[in-house]
Amino acid sequence: xxxxxxxxxxxxxxxxxxxxxxxxxxxxxxxxxxxxxxxxxxxxxxxxxxxxxxxxxxxxxxxxxxxxxxxxxxxxxxxxxxxxxxxxxxxxxxxxxxxxxxxxxxxxxxxxxxxxxxxxxxxxxxxxxxxxxxxxxxxxxxxxxxxxxxxxxxxxxxxxxxxxxxxxxxxxxxxxxxxxxxxxxxxxxxxxxxxxxxxxxxxxxxxxxxxxxxxxxxxxxxxxxxxxxxxxxxxxxxxxxxxxxxxxxxxxxxxxxxxxxxxxxxxxxxxxxxxxxxxxxxxxx
Length: 285
Ligand SMILES: Nc1ncnc2c1ncn2[C@@H]1O[C@H](COP(=O)(O)OP(=O)(O)OP(=O)(O)O)[C@@H](O)[C@H]1O
Description:
Layout: E1 3-13, E2 18-27, E3 31-36, H1 42-49, E4 57-62, H2 71-76, E5 78-81, H3 93-103, H4 109-118, H5 132-143, E6 150-154, H6 162-175, E7 182-186, H7 190-196, E8 199-204, E9 207-213, H8 214-220, E10 222-226, H9 228-233, E11 239-244, E12 249-253, H10 256-262, E13 267-270, H11 273-282
Parallel strand pairs: 3-7, 3-8, 5-6, 6-7
Antiparallel strand pairs: 1-2, 1-4, 8-9, 10-12, 10-13, 11-12
The site of adenosine-5'-triphosphate has 10 residues, from helix 1.
């Protein structure tokens, strides 16, 4: 599969926090979800891709080039949404349309107006009159209106109601249909990631714990409710973390079928992305 984005051993050290040795690849026609607790390094990773911060080590390639080779053209083809992004308070979408058409060579006014309509955003209200959700939708409309091939979305669905979130996820799924586009989206809402992503990347305290196909993960990982004695006998390579409760131990195992074969009476549940995140952050290793 051809990649639209790749990161090789990217490291950014802030002193107290370090994004460490990130290596991942996003194929064309795919959506990758970035999952991690608050402060895990999701925004830092997205900023490193966009060259918004200087990385200490490693390489980022977008469309097979590094940003420094052809920054203007590469950025033209990337649509971004950041939770803290702010537009001039007194500007209306109508005015932004004009400004953006002079910034992006491929700005598509018709598409922008269609998205504004679809998202029920007024053309003539200033940004300061927009709610948080409306501002987020406005950013998404902009990201989708300049023929971008890659979308980098930081918490793009947070602050949106469930109907609007569903709308955005459908648009993202449409966006990748032609197999030439791709999306990297960070979210705390693991159910959104579960719904739309082909790949998931887990970050924890700046380290990448996993980057793999979502379906493979959901098909194989499980939570085994067992005794301490059973856990002691389990090979270290077969599980990622465990949590002890009053009556039993819950273990996040990598291959639930394998454990079931060894323990036919095992009480096993499939693991959701949320389970995996919670075990990785709070579980004992
Ligand atoms: N400019 C900076 N200087 C120093 N530390 C920084 C800087 N920017 C971010 N950090 C630190 O990097 C760490 C990761 O922050 P980041 O915003 O990437 O996390 P996140 O996973 O996006 O979190 P959240 O889910 O809360 O948005 C945090 O500890 C933060 O304090």
